[in-house]
Automatic annotation (TrEMBL):
InterPro entries: NADP_DH_HndA-like, NuoE-like, NuoE_N, Thioredoxin-like_sf. Belongs to the complex I 24 kDa subunit family. Its cofactor is [2Fe-2S] cluster. GO terms for molecular function: 2 iron, 2 sulfur cluster binding; metal ion binding; oxidoreductase activity. Binds 1 [2Fe-2S] cluster. This is NAD-dependent formate dehydrogenase gamma subunit.
Amino acid sequence: MSATDPTDDTLSRLIARHRDCEGPLLPILHDMMEAFGHIDEGTYPQLGRALGITRAEIHGVVSFYHDFKTRPNGHHTIKLCRAEACQSVGATETQSALFDRLGLTDFGTTPDGRITVEAVYCLGLCACGPAALVDTQPRGRVSAQSLATEVGA
Ligand code: FES
């Protein structure tokens, strides 16, 4: 079993861990993200049967929270701040240059599956924008060059 290959056994254990809690769906989804790196839509029927909720209800929750992914991210994830303070110091130009460097036309994952670029809206690093998170590490005064170098692109 790989970390990105949801299995009935693993999912059953995650469901059993939270089934009797009040509001079990969110903790189960968080555990699925940790175990599988994403929430495969193919798991919705099993989740729905276990929790007595519909596929639409599960989809509504998964699609509402940006941190829930229905496909695995790349090996590295760059979360580039797109909020106003960072825009005022070049975040838009940084984004364009980073997309050019990585071969992206929009936020998403590179064709080789190695790097995912996501938009975020304020990381609390406004004084040192443009700001980003590279995997879990905050970075200030980033450039396309510095970000690409950090993820080996
Ligand atoms: S606006 Fe970018 S970190 Fe706050």
